[in-house]
Design goal:
With 383 residues, this protein is mainly alpha-helical. The chain folds into 2 domains: 1-24 and 261-383, no CATH class; 37-239, Rossmann fold (3-Layer(aba) Sandwich), CATH 3.40.50. The chain has 15 helices and 7 strands. The protein binds zinc ion.
């Protein structure tokens, strides 16, 4: 049986999730603490940090804002401009940038910022996507790495020490810049930020003709370079109450585009719009851990009291973990084409990474699929 948090709808199969003896998950427990946070004090702290890093002579940018073009990064840029900062926005191009993702990047520029986009070698990138998918069941491995390495490389390159990250997934600290003696952003933080699934960047060399020189953008700058520039960072979500839905509403008021329908496998139309491969990424999360994007979204809205747990359960049942035949309207076949994979080969890879303990099997121990290729979880709630 899969055990679920009795307050939200998250299953305990989510990596690093802990459900306590009252049946409540640690994400819900963290959210309980929110009303006790002194947001006025944190806002003051944020202003103090920004003041410390603001370039008074006007000879360099005040901070780097890593931007994907999504609702959260649009919100980060809006807030930085409101706080009087002069940011350099840096995009690490997604693995397979969508049309709406491109429009949202153009929209960020129009907010009135300097902007740099770093696009990695697409031939190498496709190889890394395929290796990630076939070796660790994560097509987005190069994206998870590059969204952290490229802004840090830009900080070193442009001599701008402060990086403004968005949400702090650990929810505990404001980042190294908030520390008493502003620590530099070292490799340890980097490794805490992003799940590399046991596959290090250097492990990629040797696969499919990939050499170390192909992996430069995926490599963290040297400690000497970080130290010289004093690269540090903060999580905006620690200083300002963070709500993806609220960020989307604010961003839309500043020109951010959403879809006319909900995103496949999700229940909202305002996030994960920038990469055609995201549907595959989220589907593999479902195959491995029995939850997908719809569960994530339902939990966020349940915690904020916008929907009931019953409604959330229904949303999950209807939308979570559906086979990704299309994403953002693009057919799976076309999404797989640049990776040199057919849909049949893709289905075999899916089956290989499916945790068979979490899904219904037939008498021969084979996964039961409906006519659309969808699986059924062994249970959708606590009994
Ligand atoms: Zn919970």
């Amino acid at each position: 049986m899969i055990r679920y948090c009795k307050r939200c709808v998250m299953p305990e199969t989510k990596p690093d999730l802990y459900i306590d003896n009252e049946g409540v998950c640690d994400a819900c427990r963290n959210y309980e603490k929110r009303p006790h946070v002194d947001w006025t004090q944190r806002y003051k702290e944020l202003n103090e940090i920004l003041e410390r890093y603001r370039n008074k002579s006007g000879s360099n940018w005040d901070c780097i804002v890593p931007v994907s073009g999504g609702k959260d990064s649009t919100y980060q840029v809006i807030r930085m401009l409101q706080l009087g900062m002069n940011p350099l926005c840096v995009t690490a191009t997604t693995c397979d940038l969508s049309d709406i993702g491109r429009r949202n990047i153009e929209n960020i520029k129009k907010l009135g910022v300097d902007y740099v986009e770093f696009t990695t070698n697409p031939v190498v990138r496709r190889k890394l996507n395929r290796i990630g998918l076939t070796q660790v069941g994560d097509i987005s491995w190069p994206e998870h790495v590059s969204i952290f390495t490229i802004p840090v490389r830009a900080a070193v390159q442009f001599n701008v020490p402060l990086i403004i990250w968005g949400e702090n997934t650990q929810d505990e600290y404001g980042g190294p810049a908030a520390g008493k003696e502003s620590k530099v952003l070292d490799r340890r933080y980097f490794e805490e930020f992003c799940g590399l699934l046991g596959m290090r960047v250097s492990d990629m060399a040797g696969f499919e003709g990939i050499e170390p020189k192909h992996l430069i953008p995926y490599t963290y700058p040297s400690y000497e370079d970080i130290q010289r520039v004093g690269v540090t960072g903060l999580f905006l979500g620690y200083f300002l109450p963070w709500d993806g839905y609220g960020n989307a509403l604010i961003s839309q008021a500043y020109g951010f585009n959403t879809l006319s329908t909900t995103v496949e496998g999700s229940v909202v139309n305002y996030e994960n719009l920038d990469n055609y491969q995201t549907g595959i990424h989220d589907y593999f999360k479902f195959l491995k851990f029995a939850f997908g994007r719809a569960t994530d979204i339902a939990c966020l809205h349940i915690r904020r009291g916008r929907i009931s747990r019953e409604d959330g359960k229904e949303m999950v049942y209807r939308h979570d973990g559906k086979f990704p035949w299309t994403y953002l309207g693009k057919p799976l076949k076309d999404i797989l084409e640049p990776l040199d994979l057919s849909v049949d080969e893709f289905i075999k890879i899916c089956d290989r990474f499916t945790n068979k303990k979490l899904f219904k099997l037939d008498a021969h121990g084979e996964l039961i699929k409906d006519r659309h290729g969808n699986l059924t979880k062994i249970n959708y709630d606590n009994e």
